């Protein structure tokens, strides 16, 4: 496990490490309302598809807990609008919708009174967190078999403890390999514009004693051409049913480079990240974020006031993916059939 | 021409726009000694292979002018050590050595006395600047034929007026196309770690009225996959005799992406950038720069104190290059023979 807590439920509050302040400050913020949780997701206090799923579940629970309506119908409709507010925070991560659906099932299947359902929602949100950690550990153990002693693994963005309940998907695979004594070194891309690699992955691995070297995104091709990368392992924000992967902007570029250098390219993601309703990558909405993320870095202007593109994610065709590592097994091509087999 | 002066000789001083301060401040620094010029090159007040060549020539001239020895032999040996100091500032750009050789030829071929040679060195340095501008204009005109009206061109780093005497190589091609009325749009990569794209290319094009959009380096693959790029045009710090190109880190990555998307990849560089003594890219020394360029941005820490790679350049194999645009003609494959034909 990581040596810090990404998100937890504490005294009817949602406590999160403020990922915007890392690595400079390790501070935690408390959300006492669902609006605060939604704002934390939108402002990227917490990010990473699985962590967003946990936060959304806890946001719905805290929102439900704080409603003061008496009747079941009114309560149900209030929870529905809380759920919609949380689902509207970020469009690409499917775990958000998965978590909201899961909370909705508690409502749908409960015969209890409002107070009873409130407690069940809180229990369910806590369960989402616990299960996420167990899922990542299982996924990590399975994936670690793909990594050999002495390998150098390149990762992009942060698919670590900070992106999940506390163990990580891509970094969970690396953690698990390290835990069984394999000597694994990591090369982390800084991941502009939001610098999740420089700020979060480098911090998380360094803190947990896993050797990490930092590069700019522009160095990936050069580093690969020098034979310095044995495998790529990274996460996913959404996997389409054909194996196309939506993940942090830059992932597609890395997949093309890995392919051209004959380096295996592994995607690590829980089954909850697979969107079986989604036929392919072209159907996944790509969030366009604030232009200031490109023209400014950490609040400091680096560019004149020119036009900017700022897609937060890109689509990697399944064809560029060697394997998709999940807690239920490792899917190989053709993904259209192998991903179906993982469905619970 | 650009609407600002990158470098000029003024009242026996070398005046340069301080490129570290752009785009926030447009300030100019005056170098009155060769040591100040060497420091300006090392600290990247001025950068870009052709501009470094001009700065080195002017640095040698100013150093020679300020010597106070009487004898020819002593003067020659002092100029030699001044020249060595300037050649030691940055290892990759071949124009530095080219400019120093050119100044040396003034010494070798002159029968004048020391005062006369000093004036000839100043004249030669001024000529290096004027010729660079003429060279870039010729190169730009030739290269502009490769760009069609309505094209969007992706460029990396800054191979513009700021990287040369005042017109640009890659941006010279774009300037020339714009000057004949073609509607050319530019996508500039920000070019981490030193942000030459965000700070310099975006500033330069915006100031000169050429439409430019800024992206992070991680977006190149995505933007290409969306069909948004018609051609890549960028510069070179050194071209080996087989057509391998040393250029800003990230260039190789862009070349692989361009190839995989069927997008033409043009390198624009004056003949002085071709190193005929150098057989291939593997023989070109790659400068490794300060780790703080990666862990910090504009002085602000963005990463914990972990290991870092920071190669300033990478090698693009000639095989990934569509054409090399020079002032003497456009070289196509096989470069080993076509580059030889350009030799003056």
Give structural attributes.
17 strands; 344 residues; seven-stranded mixed beta sheet; Rossmann fold; Four Helix Bundle (Hemerythrin (Met), subunit A); homodimer; four-stranded mixed beta sheet; 11 helices; alpha/beta
Description:
- 2 copies of one chain form a homodimer.
- Chain A has 2 domains: 7-137, Up-down Bundle (Four Helix Bundle (Hemerythrin (Met), subunit A)); 140-341, 3-Layer(aba) Sandwich (Rossmann fold), CATH 3.40.50.
- Chain A is built from 11 helices and 17 strands.
- The first copy, chain A, has helices at 34-42, 49-65, 72-87, 95-109, 114-144, 170-179, 196-207, 220-225, 251-260, 292-295, 335-342; strands at residues 7-10, 13-17, 28-31, 152-155, 185-189, 212-215, 231-234, 238-240, 245-248, 265-268, 274-275, 296-297, 300-301, 307-308, 313-316, 323-326, 329-331.
- In chain A, strand 16 and strand 17 form a beta hairpin.
- Chain A is globular and about 65 Å long.
- The two termini of chain A are 26 Å apart.
- At the A-B interface, helix 7, strand 6, helix 8, helix 9 and strand 13 of A face helix 7, strand 6, helix 8, helix 9 and strand 13 of B.
- Strand 6 of chain A pairs parallel with strand 14 (307-308) of chain B.
């Amino acid at each position: 496990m990581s040596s810090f807590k990404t998100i937890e439920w504490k005294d009817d509050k949602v406590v999160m490490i403020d990922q915007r302040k890392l690595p400079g400050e390790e501070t935690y913020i408390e959300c006492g309302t669902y609006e605060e949780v939604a704002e934390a997701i939108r402002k990227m206090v917490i990010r990473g598809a699985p962590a967003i799923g946990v936060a959304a579940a806890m946001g719905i629970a805290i929102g439900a807990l704080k409603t003061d309506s008496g009747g079941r119908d009114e309560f149900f409709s209030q929870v529905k609008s809380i759920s919609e507010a949380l689902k509207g925070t970020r469009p690409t991560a499917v775990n958000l919708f998965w978590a909201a659906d899961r909370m909705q099932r508690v409502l749908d299947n409960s015969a209890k009174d409002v107070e009873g359902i409130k407690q069940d929602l809180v229990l369910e949100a806590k369960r989402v967190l616990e299960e996420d950690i167990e899922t990542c550990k299982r996924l990590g153990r399975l994936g670690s078999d793909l990594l050999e002693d002495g390998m150098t693994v390149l990762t992009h963005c942060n698919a670590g403890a900070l992106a999940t309940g506390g163990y990580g998907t891509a970094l969970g695979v690396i953690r698990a390999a390290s835990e069984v004594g394999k000597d694994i070194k990591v090369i982390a891309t800084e991941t502009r514009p939001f610098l999740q690699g420089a700020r979060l992955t480098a911090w998380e691995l360094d803190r947990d004693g896993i050797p990490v070297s930092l590069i700019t995104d522009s160095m990936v091709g050069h580093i690969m051409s020098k034979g310095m990368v044995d495998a790529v392992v990274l996460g996913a924000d959404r996997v389409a049913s054909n194996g196309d992967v939506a993940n942090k902007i830059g992932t597609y570029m890395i997949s093309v480079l890995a392919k051209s250098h004959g380096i295996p390219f592994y995607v690590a993601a829980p089954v909850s990240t697979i969107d079986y309703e989604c036929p392919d990558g072209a159907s996944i909405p790509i969030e366009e974020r604030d232009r200031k993320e490109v023209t400014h870095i950490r609040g400091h202007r680096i560019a004149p006031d020119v036009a900017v593109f700022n897609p937060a994610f890109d689509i990697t065709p399944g064809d560029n993916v060697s394997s998709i590592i999940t807690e239920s097994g490792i899917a190989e091509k053709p993904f259209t059939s192998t991903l179906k087999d993982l469905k619970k």
